[in-house]
Amino acid sequence: MISRREFLQASVAASALYGISGYGNWGKLAAQQTLTQDDLLKFDTFGNLSIIHITDIHAHLKPIWFREPELNVGVGDVKGKPPHVVGKDFIEMFNLKPGSPEAYALTYEDFVALGKTYGQMGGMDRVATVVKAIKADRPDAILLDGGDTWHGSMTSYLTKGQDVVNVMNKLGVEAMTSHWEWTFGTDRVMEIVDGLPFPFLGQNIFDSEWDEPAEFPDYTWFERGGAKVAVIGQAFPYMPIANPGWMFPEYSFGIRDRRMQEMVDEVRAQGADLVVVLSHNGFDVDRQMASRVSGIDVILTGHTHDALPEPVIVGETLLIASGSHGKFVTRLDLDVRDGRMMGFRSKLIPIFSDVITPDAEMATLIDAERAPFKDQLEEVIGHTDSLLYRRGNFNGTWDDLICDAIMSERDTEIAMSPGVRWGASLMPGDAITREDIHSVTSMTYGQCYRTEMTGEFLKVVLEDVGDNLFNPDPYFQQGGDMVRMGGLGYKIDISKPIGERISNMTLLSTGDAIDPARSYTVGGWASVNEGTEGPQIWDVVENHIRKIGRVALSPNNSVEVTGL
Amino acid sequence: MFTRRDTMALGLGAATITLLPISVHAAADDAIAAYTGGASVTEGGVMITAPEIAENGNTVPISVEAPGAEEIAIYADGNPTPGVAVFKFGPAAGSHRASTRIRLGGTQDVVAVAKMPDGSFQQAAVEVKVTIGGCGG
């Protein structure tokens, strides 16, 4: 009798084998110009149940460029483990072929050159085609959305998320959880939630006054493939810390893993054959939660924007990471029998926008949502000669440009740009439209402030944000990247504790060491405090780009990272 | 000069002092020793429920539970005055659990010490981080 544990391991091997046969030919196929939608969707239907997972689209409805990180450091127990593997190491770990479509989709290697061959990715009209194809094969497949859905584009900002809500409803989402959704404020969230044809889940959303579970469902049920499936929601745990709590003061969040255990036990007692957690914890937090909470079969992870071609297995729990920005969709087929998950087959489906035919109905809907704003969206503000990207633990070129814009337009010595992980890339030679600027700046608290900070305080800032990223206990990691600095260089030893990581802070304009006692003029955006004043960051960036016309950035070597 | 309130105004940049002087920890140790009368304290037997990262350091919800305990004392080992509360449970108490909200001046351990009917003491500690930096992905 094969044990459950052995079976899962056997399944992993099978999954890897499938990956080789399914992925290995693509490079060749593409070279022959024969990479087809059928290749991308090829899947040998398995078991009795299918789950479709999409997460962190950040309101990106149209195809985009998206460069995966060059640096994604893991600390403590997760050093060198997925998703903290990038570039060539990633290609090697997952047995991909350099230069192949999947290497292009999953790593930063040769991004510009390969982009010319393989094109943009994502687009919710393409995603709709994929979802329909999976449902043609498995009509009762469950479609789940991991959140960070309504926020992140100019149209979502202008419609307060309505354009994305309409698209996701049409896509057929059956449950979701949340993070940036809350930055539209409680009233707007409640207005949208009241109209959703599916539950807005979060076992960790509490009433902040009474410290009791709030009105949002902890979990929901699906009867599919003869199995009783419980889907428990886990919203972003650090909501009022990382985003402005004053916009949703009625609610408290947190990891609350003991309550997660109670929820798992509760649904098991009610006869769940399969327990799925739809999570916005971030990958490392989910990995730790999987080791502390027993009885979860699958965690659909989100928040940290990792795309992994195979599940990570913790004990008997599968962790699925489906990327961001509509670049990937995961299909997970499961064999659920006798109240247990007996095996799985999964595929991270890359949404190559030039290969997958747009779904006509969804394309029409997206264009209709965009129509009232089309001229504003598509107005060309300037051009870039540099690759513009954000994702990575330290400065990306988009933030270099944003920091330059802040220092120039707000006349400051130093600029700070938040280490969020959302925002699409642009290729050298691309036009920069207003919509492109919003892709990396859109938010409901985008005021660009100007203030003064002492050198001592600047160090506290860097130490504090650094600890949110590099604290060896995942439960203390908020899941963003390091705050990006303009005009200020520093060294960081990520192996040290808080207070000891940052050294050699330098004012780049003079080359002088930062004086702890001196005040510096500092500009930044995305303040979590109510009443922050300043022009919107996208207007600051637009004005700057208009003045310079063409963006050509010098390499940024102002951050020296050690202790890796 | 930045006050804490000002630092909060800066949002992503904001932060608090996170290193606490050793003397503060010593004050907590002294307070616990005074409570136990110097008796030895075993680890475990007490469960503390607290956020990993405080959403608001000025009012942090804390729950403590110690089955069978006569009393549970709570200490914030980084606060200038570490003693927070002592909950006393009568013989008819159905559960030995209490919840309150406490103010934490910075990242620190919250310690709960339970006094058992046989005069022994048990304790547990959890770290609560007080920060307002960081950015959501």
Strands in their spatial order, largest beta sheet of chain B: 1-8-7-4-5
Radius of gyration of chain B: 16 Å
Structural class by helix and strand composition of chain B: alpha+beta
| Approximate shape of chain B | globular
- What gyration radius of chain A follows from the Cα positions, in whole Å? 23 Å
Report the oligomer.
heterodimer
User: Can you tell me the residue ranges of chain B where pLDDT is under 50 for at least 5 consecutive residues?
Assistant: 1-21
Largest sheet of chain B: 5 strands, mixed
The CATH first-level class of chain B comes to: Mainly Beta
pLDDT < 50 runs, ≥5 residues of chain A: 1-25
Strand order within the widest sheet of chain A?
6-7-9-10-12-11
Question: What is the CATH third-level topology name of chain B?
Answer: Immunoglobulin-like
What form of chain A results from the Cα inertia axes? globular
Domain 5'-Nucleotidase C-terminal (chain A): 393-534
InterPro entries (chain A): 5'-Nucleotdase_C, 5'-Nucleotdase_C_sf, 5'-Nucleotdase_CS, 5_nucleotidase/apyrase, Calcineurin-like_PHP, Metallo-depent_PP-like, SoxB_N, TAT_signal
Keywords (chain A): Hydrolase, Nucleotide-binding, Signal
Family (chain A): Belongs to the 5'-nucleotidase family.
